[in-house]
Design goal:
105 residues, mainly beta, two-stranded antiparallel sheet, 1 helix, 26% strand, globular
Length: 105
């Protein structure tokens, strides 16, 4: 991270709900030997609502690879005033490499 965050993905925009259920997934490469800090920032109408900072490893190791917590606001405090976030990780194993078959003509 080197002191700065880099955006790697965004969910779809959902309007007219205070309880959004996002379908968009953000794929990340998990490297268990590395500490991978990730941050989920919540924005509503171009207004920063709050965020969750966690390591990818901690999220994957959480019960059911799911983290439910209050958002941390701009004041640096996690509280119900900023809302709640539920984040789930899904480990997808790469497909086994396909064998290429060559036929002599």
């Amino acid at each position: 991270r080197n002191g700065q965050w880099r955006e790697v993905g965004r969910t779809e925009v959902l309007e007219g709900t205070l309880d959004p259920k996002f379908l968009e997934r953000v794929p990340l490469d998990y490297r268990p030997e590395e500490k991978q800090d990730i941050r989920f920032a919540v924005v509503s109408d171009d207004h920063y609502v709050g965020s969750l900072e966690i390591t990818l490893g901690d999220l994957i190791k959480a019960r059911r690879s799911k983290k439910t917590t209050y958002l941390k606001g701009a004041d640096g405090l996690s509280s119900s005033l900023h809302g709640m976030i539920i984040v789930t990780a899904e480990v997808i194993h790469p497909q086994a490499q396909k064998k290429e078959e060559y036929v002599e003509e």
